Amino acid sequence: MASPDSVLDKDGVRLTVEDAVATVTLTNPAKRNAQSPALWRALAQAGRSLPGSVRVVVLRGEGKSFSAGLDRQAFTPEGFDGEPSFLDLARGSDAELDAAIAEYQEGFTWWRRNDLVSIAAVQGHAIGAGFQLALACDLRVVAPDVQFAMRETSLGLVPDLTGTHPLVSLVGYARALEICATGRFVHAEEAERIGLANLVVDHDELDAAVRDLSAALLAAPRDAVIETKALLRGAQERTYEDQRTAERAAQARRLRDLAGLSD
Hints:
The protein is of the alpha/beta class. It has helices at about 35-50, 85-90, 95-110, 130-135, 165-170, 175-180, 190-195, 205-220, 220-235, 240-260, and strands at about 5-10, 15-20, 20-25, 55-60, 115-120, 125, 140, 145-150, 185, 200.
């Protein structure tokens, strides 16, 4: 098996590609993979840098924690080197603040592209921005020590890195509200029971379980997976009859493709 090709390694994010599988790794275990605007830009760049051959993207964090969330240095007057602090951003205009948050969100939006299936391998802390990054992925495989928590509300903030939509989709409005408003921890057994985790495995089996899941996802023809993912993602916004229509249209495309009749 060929060694993975290194595509990107900057600002706490490393992207490697091996055949149809890309791996995005958070690489600052000394700070429990705390996040910063530079890391978010690197995540967005990783999405833009994926070769067209990639079908599965694995997201993981080095060390004992997946990601303990936002680096609190963002809230100090000095902020990060070369970056405005969040306090400075708050003093800007509404348009400037909106644009800054929109840029930050770009690191979280590409994981659900229809041409990819993304898997978060989560151990230890996945708090705040870390929780939202795990939620950005299609699937989550977790270790028994996982600790999900949405702590933004406890800090007087709101979750703003695209995590609210998938959280409600996975666990429902009432439970999502309770998780966010209390900031409590969700551990592995509950995460699997309520749909946050697809699978819980021992810590030393996490990488192997993700490899097995990746292989299973790659076994089906790519176009069929893309069409199926698009159908499922759109199902919540469609009526039952509209979903039936979408299914028929997608199946017609697949049948024509298999018969060699595609345009």
